[in-house]
UniProtKB/TrEMBL annotation:
The chain crosses the membrane at residues 30-54, 66-90, 102-124, 145-165, 185-211, 248-269, 281-300. GO terms for cellular component: plasma membrane. It is found in: Cell membrane. It is a multi-pass membrane protein. It comes from the Eukaryota. Keywords: Cell membrane, G-protein coupled receptor, Membrane, Receptor, Transducer, Transmembrane, Transmembrane helix. GO terms for molecular function: trace-amine receptor activity. Residues 46-297 form the G-protein coupled receptors family 1 profile domain. It comes from Betta splendens (Siamese fighting fish). Belongs to the G-protein coupled receptor 1 family. This is Trace amine-associated receptor 13c-like.
Amino acid sequence: MDTLKEPELCFPHLLNASCRKYARPHSEAMLIYVLVSCISLLTACLNLLVIVSISHFRQLHTPTNLLLLSLAVSDFLIGLIVVPFQMLLTEPCWFLGDLVCVLYYFIPFITVPASVINMVLISIDRYVAICDPLRYSTRITHSRVKLCVVLCWVYSIFYSFLFLYDNLKHPGSSNSCYGECVVNVILAADLILSFIVPISAIIILYVRVFVVAVSQARSMRSHITAVKQQRSLTVTVQRSELKAARTLGVVVAVFLMCYCPFYCVSLSGSDLIISSSANTFIAFLVYFNSCLNPVIYVLCYRWFRKSIKLIVTLQILQPQSCKANIL
């Protein structure tokens, strides 16, 4: 049976200034590496399929799909860069230096907020489409959506500099010993901007969509004697709204499931060391949300399954494939 070895120093030549390291049991280390590798690969591949599909096929160049594209880009970067680098943070010691440590944190501090904001924008888009369908085409235009996407990424970059600027000026100032990779952030502000505000917006929008769906259902029952064509139209609208309500409900549930453990631990003030299994789990749970986003938002669409088939069979390499009918 694997057991923890006696603590050793990360930098033996620094004596008491060095952090202590513990050799993780081989079975636990292998499990972490396998899971992280699978999550990273799956997240990058799924989101890359979304990026290629929406970028290549002209029929998919809609305002809603532009938001899905922006979400897929942020989640793709999380799967390609953030998750693999997170494996280094699961090690007992950090050997890449204080400056590299701070620079690494810039990537998740940009991509994770961008992913969350894109979720909010998608919820707003669906809210307008369901609650105000007659004015959707005039309120949600390509130019406005592009502007929102640009502002989303500008905000995310500003957000990262806001929280990490002091750490960049004085790298390693938050470390208690050599061999740590720790940054100092204002947890209250991060909690409000990254969790409370986005999830509140999504919940409010979801409740409104749910109310509209229920209202449509009641309206349908109260007009049973209406003409057949009107009744069919009402059924179609009501089904569409219920489907959107269910989708947003899944979004809220998955977002809470992935983010609540991290922020609950942060608020509790628990001191989780860099190599602890609990810290590793809650960190990857946040990033795993990026793997679930394409499943929630895209795999439910028939056009995505068709575009996957065209991509896998390399039919997108054929001339004029961008004009293919996949809707």
